[in-house]
Amino acid sequence: MKGLRLRDATAADRGPVFEFCKKTWPDYGDYIPRVWTRWLRDRGGRLIVAELDGTPVALGKVTDLGRGEIWLEGLRVDPKFRRTGIADAMHTEVMRTVKKFKPRFMRYCTGADNPASRRIGKKYGFEVIARFRYYWQKSRKGTPRGDLATRRDARHVYDYIMQSRFLKLSSGQIAEGWIFREMNRDLLAGYIRQQRVMVMKKSGQLTGVGVYPYEENDDSTTLGFVDGEPGTIKVLARNCIYLTKMHGRKFCSAAVPTRGFARLIEQAGFLRKESVGQLVLEHRLGHRDTNRNGASNA
């Protein structure tokens, strides 16, 4: 498109970008204002702006999660310039940027009701690898049940997660809000250090695990992983609501595989009427060793 320029975002782009992001979701607005400064300072990734005749009209973020994982997020196009080829131009620039990282794969998440995003993804070699249901709930006071995992639990918790039904259905992913990451030992160790993992035990044996990462985009907490017997899953899901309150956050979310988990999350108190379908799409660029559940052994 004549007059279109793709470049690194600058602080001066704030006003125009925030303006065209105002109505991304009619009842919600957008999370871009809350992450703008952090994204600008992220030297490990790249925040890209499409500028038309000197005015920003689109945005895209490439985030390096480490270990060969690239996450794509924040793709926005000014509503006045949709269906003009700008989204395709942005994706081309994103792909050019990603190649510099030489990743194993790149992923992004979109709503199940967003066929346009899926069409563009398919054009660039992405395919759906997992389907989730995203819920939210206000935090409230309550007493969590179970125990915080410790470093001594790490090996057993890791083995439990890697062999879980949840991880099989999620293609090895756990959620941090709308970001999905491949489970690995280092990631779990970080969650344990942050006191974001709770376990249920019977006679010294693990019977359930819940993982509750922070969701930085919304300053909330996510139920990013949960598994166990049905009753245990509901208990660990409610823990997320209580832990969020204890940590001074107003809202919590849950992202769980659609099959087998959604009903239990609703019974635990998360709101079905506010839930949305999530699709995680992947474009694999390198080799990924997997266990029998499809999760990385790294």
In which order are the strands of the major sheet placed?
1-2-3-4-5-16-6-15-13-12
Count of runs of 4 or more consecutive helical residues: 9
Provide the succession of SSEs.
EHHEEEHEHEEHHEEHEEEEEHEHE
Approximately how much helix is present in the residues?
Answer: 25-40%
Work out the strand percent.
25-35%
Strand segment count: 16
The CATH architecture category of the largest domain equals 3-Layer(aba) Sandwich
- Given the helix and strand composition, which structural class is it? alpha+beta
CATH class of the largest domain: Alpha Beta
Q: What is the CATH superfamily label of the largest domain?
A: Gcn5-related N-acetyltransferase (GNAT)
**Can you give the mean pLDDT?**
91
Classify the fold: give the CATH topology of the largest domain: Aminopeptidase
| Main β-sheet description | 10 strands, mixed
Number of structural domains: 2
Straight-line distance between termini: 43 Å
Indicate the radius of gyration in whole angstroms: 20 Å
Overall geometry comes to: globular
Low-pLDDT windows of residues: 289-298
Characteristic key phrases:
single chain; Aminopeptidase
Give the secondary structure arrangement, pairings included.
Layout: E1 4-8, H1 14-21, H2 32-41, E2 46-52, E3 55-66, E4 69-77, H3 86-99, E5 105-111, H4 115-123, E6 127-138, E7 147-148, H5 154-162, H6 165-169, E8 173-176, E9 179-182, H7 185-193, E10 197-202, E11 205-211, E12 214-215, E13 220-223, E14 225-228, H8 230-246, E15 251-257, H9 258-267, E16 276-284
Parallel strand pairs: 4-5, 13-15
Antiparallel strand pairs: 1-2, 2-3, 3-4, 5-16, 6-15, 6-16, 7-10, 8-9, 10-11, 11-14, 12-13
Helix pairs in contact: 8-9
